[in-house]
Design goal:
Length: about 300
């Protein structure tokens, strides 16, 4: 079906299919909505913004006043004589970590250093300090001497104030002229080797050092207690040393009368062990007397 030039069969006031209005047209009897007053809306929005800012500013001022009041309260409490007012908020005391009395004087220490402990050698270097009793048995106690795995049986002991009587060769003369006070001798033996040690005492360490340098001859071997006479007419090994006011000598060899050679290490070892033991015994005397002196201070 075709339409004429007048358009569709319904009029301008009629609705098209399904009640739809023709495109681009408004229904009759209705007006267009009025255009909004944009200036009025902008003025109202600005007024509301100003009111909101004043509200926020007012709230901040109230918070500032509250903080200032709290600080003022704490300052007043800190300066108050009331013990309760001094407590911080929450009732927890901050004074528990402080010392009870901060005005107490600090501890003081003496600037004078304590005296050093006495030197043991000082007590065995002069007769004036070396006052402890000295006998053959106190110097060489017991029945044997053990050094490592070597055990030596102790033989005879002898002490005399006539020092020259226990010597051989020119040693007696050296001891006498330097004022020897006493001579103590002891013999030790092991596996056919015997060594006699002799300890002579003098007034001072200087005299003892002089005697050591002037030594000639040797101490006489001491027989007895199972040890035959030895080292009287045979070649033997001898030594001389000094410690403090003490000079100690050794003479060692074979009990069967054989001469000692450089290859006879047993004779050298025995003599060294006995000499070392003697030195330690003299030093122990010094240690004991130094300890007594320190305790008396």
């Amino acid at each position: 079906m075709s339409y004429g030039q007048g358009g569709p069969p319904w009029g301008q006031g009629d609705r098209g299919p399904q009640g739809q209005q023709p495109y681009g047209q408004q229904p009759y009897g209705q007006q267009r909505p009025a255009t909004p007053d944009w200036e009025a809306l902008a003025s109202a929005s600005e007024a509301r913004g100003r009111k909101r800012r004043w509200t926020l500013i007012g709230g901040g001022a109230v918070a500032t006043v509250a903080v200032a009041a709290l600080v003022a309260t704490l300052v007043v409490r800190a300066n108050s004589d009331d013990p309760k007012a001094a407590d911080p908020i929450g009732g927890v005391s901050s004074s528990s970590a402080l010392p009870e009395d901060t005005t107490a004087p600090a501890p003081s220490f003496s600037e004078v250093a304590p005296p050093p402990p006495p030197d043991p050698k000082d007590f065995v270097s002069s007769a004036e300090k070396d006052k402890a009793p000295l006998t053959a048995l106190s110097l060489y106690p017991g029945k044997k001497l053990t050094v490592g795995d070597r055990v030596y049986a102790k033989g005879a002991l002898h002490r005399t104030t006539k020092c020259a009587s226990g010597t051989q060769g020119a040693l007696g003369q050296v001891l006498t002229k330097n004022g020897c006070e006493q001579l103590i001798r002891a013999t030790y033996r092991r596996d056919g080797v015997a060594v006699t040690v002799g300890v002579a005492t003098f007034k001072t360490a200087d005299v003892a050092a002089k005697v050591k340098e002037e030594t000639s001859g040797n101490v006489a071997s001491l027989a007895g207690e199972g040890v035959p006479t030895f080292c009287r007419t045979t070649v033997c090994r001898s030594t001389a040393n000094a410690y403090g006011r003490y000079v100690y000598f050794t003479v060692g060899g074979f009990t069967n009368g054989d001469n000692v050679t450089k290859q006879d290490r047993a004779v050298f070892t025995t003599g060294d062990d006995v000499a070392e033991f003697t030195l330690r015994q003299i030093h122990r005397r010094g240690v004991a007397q130094a300890s007594q002196a320190a305790a008396a201070q």
